[in-house]
């Protein structure tokens, strides 16, 4: 619905009425087309405590001189259920400290050792790694 431009000779009332009509049309257009807003939320899975053994000092498990140290680790439940390469291991619930680089015993009832890189990611899963 459009309005015509003011014509020469129109009365003040007619010009005022035309201006009011234009403003009403703009208001109806704005009300009919409200701005679209999008809200995005990100959720992360909670971490779960695991009690594991860490082989420190650069030793390789399965060697006689390699001693393990008990350590608390935190992972998402999906990685605890099925340990896979790329699972992230943390030393705290806040996800601020990655697990130290090195070897860890598996805790899922399957024998073997995990190798975790400097970023706290499982890089290798092995029965008994070779030096």
- Give the averaged pLDDT, no decimals: 81
Radius of gyration using CA atoms only = 33 Å
Distance between the termini: 82 Å
Overall number of domains:
2
H-E string = HEEHEEE
Q: Extract low-pLDDT stretches.
A: none
Helix percentage range? 10-25%
Q: Specify the overall morphology.
A: rod-shaped
Residue share in β-strands: 15-25%
Number of helices: 2
Sheet with the most strands: spatial strand order: 2-1-3-4-5
- Largest beta-sheet characterization: 5 strands, antiparallel
Number of strands: 5
Oligomer: single chain
User: Which structural class fits the helix and strand makeup?
Assistant: alpha+beta
Describe the protein.
With 131 residues, the protein is α+β, with helices and mostly antiparallel strands. The chain has 2 domains: 1-38; 47-126, no CATH class. The chain is 20% helix and 24% strand. The chain is built from 2 helices and 5 strands. The protein has helices at 12-32, 77-81, and strands spanning 47-55, 68-76, 102-105, 113-116, 122-126. A 5-stranded antiparallel beta sheet has the order 2-1-3-4-5. β3 (102-105) and β4 (113-116) form a beta hairpin. The longest helix has 21 residues, at 12-32. The radius of gyration is 33 Å and the shape is rod-shaped. The mean pLDDT is 81.
Quick rundown:
The protein has 2 helices and 5 strands, in the order αββαβββ. The protein is an alpha+beta fold and 131 residues long.
């Amino acid at each position: 619905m459009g309005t015509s431009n003011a014509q020469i000779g129109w009365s003040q009332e007619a010009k005022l009425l035309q201006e009011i009509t234009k403003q009403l049309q703009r208001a109806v257009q704005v009300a009919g087309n409200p701005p679209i807003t999008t809200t995005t939320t990100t959720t992360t899975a909670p971490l779960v405590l695991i009690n594991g053994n860490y082989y420190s000092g650069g030793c390789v498990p399965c060697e006689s001189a390699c001693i393990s140290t008990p350590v608390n680790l935190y992972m998402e439940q999906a990685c605890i259920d099925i340990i896979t390469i790329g699972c992230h291991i943390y030393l705290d619930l806040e996800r601020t400290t990655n697990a130290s680089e090195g070897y860890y015993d598996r805790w899922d009832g399957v024998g073997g050792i995990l190798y975790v890189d400097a970023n706290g990611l499982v890089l290798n899963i092995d029965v008994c790694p070779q030096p």
